[in-house]
Predict the structure.
Amino acid sequence: MLISLAFLRRTKSSRTLATSFGPGPREHKKVLVTGSLQTALWRSAIHLLPIIMSVTIVTINLNGKYIGADLMSPVKSETINLLLLQLIAKSHEIMIVASLSVMVMDFVRHELMFGGGVPLGLIGAGINFNRLDFFLRKEFYGSLGYAGAHDSKLRKSLFVGLVVVAGLVAFLAGPASAVFLVPKSQGWRVGSKTFSIVGEKSQFWPDDLSGNMSELHRWCGNGSSTTVAFCPAAGYRSLWTYWGTKNGTSIQNAPSYAKELSGSRFYWPISSPSSLIPPLYALGDTRNGTNGNTFLVQAHAAVATSLQRLADNWWNAFLASTDLPPNQVDDRIVSAEVRSAIVRLRCSDPQLLRTLDQIVSFPSITRESDFGQSFPVKIDGLHTNPSDHLRFSWVRLPSGFGPVSIGGLFESAWGRNDTEETSSSARIVVGCSVQAGWVPSTLFTDKYNFWTGWYPWNIKFNSRTPSWHPNLTALQMAEYHLELIGSTY
């Protein structure tokens, strides 16, 4: 059914006659259409605000605008800020739907007044176009034949197309506005620099520690071996602080964020208050199962020191050239590709060792990355005097153990109780094989721990370089080097 002015024209004479001779005052003519530029502009104002908002949102997303490390506003709660952004997105959607509704209703009004009318199914299109079920009803499908009428096919087709496009835009306006308004974490490269560290490659990544290192005694003697950063046992206090809080139950309880940070279950800071070397984070994991091994990876101190100084200089230069407060842009990431130190260790099963026993089993290494079966080793000079505390000693393993850097022997206290297994003339011993090396990694610091430490990231375990001299089978270490971190057999 079509409603148009044709019906009004056919009934015009009868309405006039009834009005003229009917009782009461004469009825004035009604204004059906009026022309006013001011009125047209005011009616178009409803389109202005959604257009401005849409253009602004799209422009910001295309060009990108840095608002800071966090979502900053007068409200300190990030949750409330996100809720406010969702409220703005919903308001933006409502304004878009209102603008589309006015356009569709204007088209309907034009067809009713100046065209050939519209089907009943499209009279309410200006209100129902933003509902998905409107396009699934028979009224809409029945009105599609209206576009194929013999007169003004192009205009009628444009009207139906306008209704369909308006419905699609109204359906997508809400999700699109929400996605565009929520801030996204992005990264910008703000520069890079090539730097050098003075020295030979063999000095920074050595494969032989048997050379003359007598200067270590001057700096690392008299109890300072565990406090000065470049001494062999410099990390002892940090390790003791961390592992001293663990026991057989809690040792596996790693922080939930440790694996996300390092890909490993454990990480802890290694630092020395008396050194200019910045704090470093050691990453690692403990033995998991009988075939597992414990490993540690630590950032290279010389490279970390250079990066720290470079990052400080870059940050000061950046603050001098910008008017932004530091807390708004403090979201820095600094990294460099470098080889980091890696140590892998596997221990044999505990053994009961009596006073005169000298045979202890140590795991072997069949290839560069695999530990093999354990073999017995006779150790001359084992402690025969009972002790009431744990003892540790280094053991030089023969070449048959493969590329093992050094061995370690743990001896429990003697005679803890009067049972047969641990009598006063016996103790429990554990032999461990250690392999040291270098592994390619990315030395990294970011917003989570900036200025608190550097840690290796993206560790390429399969590209590890064993730290032993190829002509000597195993890592060679000087006696006085080992004495700084324990006794030697």
